[in-house]
Amino acid sequence: MHPGLSEAECRVAEFRYRELHAMAERERLAAYAAAVPSGRVGVMETMQRHVSAFMEQASHLLQSVRTQEATEHADAPSTLALSK
């Protein structure tokens, strides 16, 4: 077994990443539809910055996992060996 994320953990992280994107899109659309009192604008901007930073970190995590998996797959010894 290789250290690091398993295939299942990677798929769960990918699913959560897609769910976060969908939730952020729903919230973005809801924010455009609803009128926002001027006092809440600062709070919403702060929350959006936090969500954006979190999404960026999740994106980098998934990219590094995919890169690591590709590297491990390329470094794996060939399973076929021919002898004379």
What does this structure look like?
The chain is mainly alpha-helical. It has a domain at 1-55. The protein is 74% helix and 0% strand. It contains 2 helices and no strands. It has helices at 7-33, 41-75. The longest helix has 35 residues, at 41-75. The chain is elongated and about 60 Å long. It starts with 6 loop residues before the first helix and ends in a 9-residue tail after the last helix. The mean pLDDT is 80.
Count of individual beta strands = 0
Sketch the topology as an H/E string, one letter per element: HH
Which structural class best describes the helix and strand composition? mainly alpha
Overall average residue pLDDT: 80
| Morphology call | elongated
* Count of separate DSSP helical elements: 2
Radius of gyration: 21 Å
Helix content: over 70%
Uncertain segments are none
Describe the largest sheet. Answer: none
Provide the fold topology:
Layout: H1 7-33, H2 41-75
Helix pairs in contact: 1-2
Essential attributes:
single chain, 84 residues, mainly alpha, 2 helices, elongated
Q: Quick gist of this model?
A:
This protein has helices spanning 7-33, 41-75.
